Amino acid sequence: MKKALLASVATCFLLPAGAMAEDTVKIGVLVALEGVFAAGGADGVRNVEMAVEQAGGMAGGKKIEIVVAPSDTTPDTAVRQARKLIEQDGVDIILGPLSGSEGIAMRDYAKTVPDKTIINGISGALETTWVDPAPNFFRFNLDGSQWGAGLGSYVVEEKGWNKVATVAADYSFGYTNFLGFAVDFCRSGGEIVERFWVPLGSSDFGGVIAAMPDDIDAIYLGVGGTDAINFLNQYEQAGAETNLIGGTIMADQTVLTSKGRAKDALIGTPTSGPLATDDPSPAWQNYVKAYQDAFPEDERFPAPSLFGVGYYVAALAAIQGLNEVEGDLSDGQVKLREVLSTKPLETPLGTVTLNENRQASGSVFITEVVEDGEGGLKVELKSRVDDINQTLGMTPDEFRAMGLPSRDTPDCAALGGKG
Amino acid sequence: MALVERTVPSGTTWIDRVPGIWWAIALILLIMPVIVNDFILFQVFGWSLVLGMIALSLMFLAGYGGMVSLIQMSVAAMGGYMVAIFGTSGVAAISMELPWWLYIPIAIIIAAAFGTLVGALAVRTEGIYTIMITLAIASAFFYFARQNYGIFNGYSGFNLVVPPPLFGVDWRQPVPFYYLALGCAALSYFAVVYVSRSPFGLALQGVRDNPRRMAALGFNVTAHRIAAYTFASVIAAVGGILLVWQNAQISPGTAGIPAVIDILVIAVVGGVRRPVGPFIGALIYTVLRTFSSDILTTFGLSGERFKLLIGLGFLAVVFFSPDGVLGLWERWRNRKNRDSDPLTGEPK
User: Fold this and answer.
1) DSSP B255
2) Total structural domains in chain B?
3) Which fold would CATH assign to domain A146-273+363-415?
4) A84: contact with B, CB 8 A cutoff
């Protein structure tokens, strides 16, 4: 018995999964199932399963087999798990990863496996598809800077707020998301009076609030989760005198459903992002309904999360690609890559096309926080900006000249604004 | 005129004194590349050897010095960061691109200096306070690396950090990397065994057992402890350099609190009494880490609960044997010996 057990364990190690049947296609799902994004990551897995289910479990005449590889949002783990998926499990396509720094690590890893295809889950770092992109890495979701686009001109034109101070998280997503807002805002003639950068996980915003200039129309708030709640609490106590503008992660469910009155300061705050839960378009409504029907209420979110939608779109892309090439993955998947690069994809968020860096162009939704009539808050769709591309409407050279997102980039004055 | 009485019969050499099982293990380790596939070689064994080295540095401090230090992972990460900063990486604005024979020693020296400094602070405390102070410095290092953009490149860290192509070999390929890691691990292992039997190592074990008596005998207790930190830090630094080469990148998460705790878990599970313990612990850790979600899915359970399996495995080991896996083995051997005749050694 013991020997048999040992032998079977040994065989597990010795046999790579190369000996798989010809008529299946293996899709690896690289997703964070540990750490702060675990709940969102689980929603990603659910959505991939749903997309495969909707396709009847088949793509390109082959049966789809899903292998899930859990990560913990660190790039080290993401690369390890990706290597396991490809070398040990023998997958053909990887869907993932979830977070920004994982995405950059996967871009570098993708170059070492040129015969496989990686379709981004929902990671949003600009650099992933902008700086030295990998030819086999595809991203069908918008990046962090695109998520911020459209909000700047909205606040200038619709709200008449021309002078803002900004408070944003001092790391890559904070810079990137801010850049999307600032480019648009400065081009509309806005003025950024002061930029404050706060470390992730800050609990004391007293200094920032005290140093806030007086003569501003609004504060741009590019922090999320508990940081946002802490800021709002302290801002409320300090008098809450001006308007707020929210970054993409600020008006999410953790903030909107938090306890206490601090969040009331958010009412009327415009924000932008890649989806709006009350989007009336039939594609989105059908998708939400399918999601709600596919899983019992206690095993899902009320509506698909940002992470879930990202992985759903990635799975759609893989399935459409495999169908187009009729499951032909020969020659290092060259046909699949051709189809993925060129064929527009119909998604719940609208039609997505990829550019020469294999980065999506698509729609951004401008929403505003309103009272839901039951003592809580919700977001309401205000406007939709289509065809936001990777360079935010600039030429690639102009965009490159602006520099990569950082504390001082973009330079507002150079874009036609002030400050 | 033999002044020294030979204790070993003249026909035997040191080769005969090494038990057969050690030769068997060494042989298996050497021919591993023909037994297993590249993935197992690089990902499971390569990673085990690297983590084993970092845990070995903790084992040295805890087992021989009686000091449970949680700084070893940070020291390793410091070594890795220095390789990225002084060597080549994808972040051209910070990396200095020095030649390999310069940046590797620099990295080890800086990491060892960092470890020594922390040691100098920590040796004045005992027991739980050592754990607290080293944990505090480890988390300070993590937050500092995450927020410092001038040197550590903040949240994103360094990517494309690869080993130098020495002798025309790409050391990141599975087989070369395996032998590189195996070589470094073997060197560290024998260094620890050697030091533990040297006068310094014996004095250190004396300090562990009774610092007051050692001080009365004229030994400088503090200096011995700090020197132990320096020695352990060199091993951790080499492990950290291999780790950054294997991952090809380093970011603050490499030395985050979970990683720091993982090293402690590895050392405890393997056993901190013997230098081989950390390597056994590291192998168990990497196997669980790599395959736990597959095991769960095989039994029809949700793969999301993979951490549960890792936790249960560690809990079981610690519950059944406070000395880790090695302790289990020793207990089993003692019981077998008890069953034999004490005079002849024959089984009863």
Assistant:
1) G
2) 1
3) Rossmann fold (3.40.50)
4) yes
Residue A16 has its nearest CB partner, among B37, B146, B297, at: B37
Bridge partner residues of A347 (DSSP): A350
Contact residues on chain A for B42, CB-CB shorter than 8 A: 83
* Helix B221-247 × helix A75-83 angle, to 10°: 50
Domain A21-142+281-357 CATH (choose: 3.40.50.10470, 3.40.190.120, 3.20.20.70, 3.40.50.2300): 3.40.50.2300
Query: For A155-193, how does the pLDDT look when each residue is reduced to its tens digit (9 = 90+)?
Result: 999 889 999 999 998 877 888 899 999 998 998 889 999
Residues of B engaging A, defined by a Cβ cutoff of 8 Å: 35-40, 42-43, 47, 90, 143, 146-147, 154-157, 159-160, 247-249, 251, 253-254, 256, 258, 290-291, 293, 297, 303-304, 306-307
Tell me if A87 and B43 make a contact (CB, 8 A cut-off): yes
What's the whole-model pTM score?
0.81
CATH of the domain at B197: 1.10.3470
Contact, A261 vs A235, CB < 8 A? no
Tell me the pLDDT band of B340, cut-offs 50, 70 and 90: low
Radius of gyration of chain B (CA): 22
Tokens describing residue B275 = 């230098």
C-alpha B207/C-alpha B64 separation (Å) is 9
**d(C-alpha B263, C-alpha B246), whole Å:** 17
Shortest Cα–Cα distance, B57 to chain A (Å): 22
CA nearest to A35 within chain B: B258
| Whether the predicted interface score ipTM is above 0.85 | no
Look up residue A49 and give its amino acid. Answer: E
